[in-house]
């Protein structure tokens, strides 16, 4: 591992288990914004062979990180400054062969934009590009609500419900039906969600009221994703009550709850703010399909 402590020259080094303390030190500078990367590091200890963690160092100090998911397709850049982000983005371009044909770049908006720009020079464009807001809710700031004991963790018996509702969610949010585009991987993911209990469901006699998942959990933050209410049941306060209950439970284990939401989704942004969420950062996501059927990139509404 080259550190270049005396010259100030930047280096990009592959991280491993020996780098855990240094990696945690960098990510802990903002444990809410970096909760997903922290959760990955806690889970795999930088030792997952199908993933790569890279550190950008200057004068021996980490100034940027890049996660490449060889199986998941998650590309997670983190850093500040055009030159640093440019180096991370160039490394994504150089490691495209390591990634699956369908991958997604998620992170601070400037970092995502740097990757999108660099890949665009190589004629690789996202099929979908989203500007988003990263929002957080601190313990003690949740707006009072009526408790919801009916909210429960999904179990294996919920596979059909989770499968169908998750497909509707992705079709609405990502403009694709995973049952058609990647049915095997999608079914496997739903099976894991039901087995691990990371997805929470609320049903009544009419069917599904609300669902949401917990994608990362540390003592500092819990990241919520996949918030969904069926279209025919919206504007009835179901999402407000369901998400409030989930947040209250998560705040018993973590100091804050966070999520990211499409900037154009005004109703969702308004809901989160009513619950007590505050905007923490500009965020972004870019979804790629480099297979032969990949359409041209377009920005979200």
Automatic annotation (TrEMBL):
Keyword Transferase assigned: yes
Pfam families from the UniProt entry: FR47
Gene Ontology MF annotations: acyltransferase activity, transferring groups other than amino-acyl groups
Alphabetically ordered keywords of this record: Transferase
Source organism, top-level taxon: Bacteria
Annotated source species: Eiseniibacteriota bacterium
Keyword Transmembrane found: no
Span of domain N-acetyltransferase: 137-294
PROSITE patterns found in the cross-reference section: GNAT
Name listed for the protein in its UniProt record: GNAT family N-acetyltransferase
């Amino acid at each position: 591992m080259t550190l270049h402590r005396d010259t100030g020259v930047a280096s990009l080094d592959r991280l491993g288990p020996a780098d855990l303390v240094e990696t945690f030190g960098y990510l802990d500078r903002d444990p809410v914004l970096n909760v997903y990367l922290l959760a990955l590091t806690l889970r795999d200890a930088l030792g997952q062979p199908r993933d790569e963690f890279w550190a950008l160092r200057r004068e021996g100090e980490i100034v940027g990180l890049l996660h490449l998911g060889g199986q998941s397709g998650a590309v997670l850049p983190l850093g500040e400054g055009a030159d640093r982000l440019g180096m991370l983005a160039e490394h994504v371009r150089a490691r495209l062969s390591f990634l699956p044909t369908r991958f997604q770049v998620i992170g601070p908006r400037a970092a995502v934009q740097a990757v999108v720009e660099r890949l665009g020079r190589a004629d690789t464009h996202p099929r979908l590009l989203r500007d988003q807001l990263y929002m957080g809710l601190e313990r003690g700031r949740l707006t009072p609500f009526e408790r919801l004991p009916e909210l429960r963790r999904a179990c294996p018996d919920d596979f059909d419900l989770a499968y169908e509702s998750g497909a509707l969610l992705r079709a609405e949010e990502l403009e694709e039906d995973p049952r058609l585009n990647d049915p095997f991987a999608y079914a496997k993911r739903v099976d894991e969600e039901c087995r691990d209990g990371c997805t929470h469901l609320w049903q009544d006699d009419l069917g599904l009221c609300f669902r949401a998942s917990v994608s990362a959990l540390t003592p500092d933050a819990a990241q919520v994703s996949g918030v969904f209410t069926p279209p025919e049941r919206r504007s009835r306060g179901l999402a407000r009550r369901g998400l409030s209950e989930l947040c209250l439970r998560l705040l018993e284990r973590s100091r804050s709850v966070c999520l990211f939401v499409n900037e154009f989704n005004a109703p969702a942004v308004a809901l989160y703010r009513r619950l007590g969420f505050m905007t923490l950062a500009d965020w972004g996501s870019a979804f790629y399909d480099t297979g032969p059927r990949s359409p041209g990139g377009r920005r979200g509404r």
